[in-house]
Amino acid sequence: MKKHVITIVAALLLSLSTYAQSGLNLGVSIGFPYENYEGYDYSFAFNIDANYLFEVNSAFNLGFATGYGQAFGEDFFFGPINFETPDYQYVPLAAAARFNINNRLVFGADVGYALSVSSAKDGFNRDYYTGGFYWRPMVGFNLNDKMQLNINYIGISDDYFYYSAFNLGFMVNLN
Question: pTM for the whole thing?
């Protein structure tokens, strides 16, 4: 088993050096939660993003994406009772695709699974959030070869929980 792991790691490292012209991208975004699980309201969100894209051809890049996201729960009062929404944290593990329309405009999407970092328990089902299906369509505008502004939508859902937010982001290509 150890030999198989070493072989896979060596193959990945060689493939990364082969595709050195593609890129490692890091970014941040602020989010505005839109529609969420019933009874849970979030006021603000932020994301830290990382992806590595391999150039398939001049108009299409394919790779993987990860990061960290957090939505801040909003408290509300119903008479003398305070209802607290717990913060929601997640780590996405996703495939990433980007379509370069021209030198400036980029369309793309990340699709995968978001692992829940939160230890919040669902009040109705009495079950902990473990994560869910993750999707993130995006539109980007390249400012130059290294920097991009983008807008994107994040959706996370499983059988009984969902989270969504519209985001404004900034990405930097480190190559």
Answer: 0.78
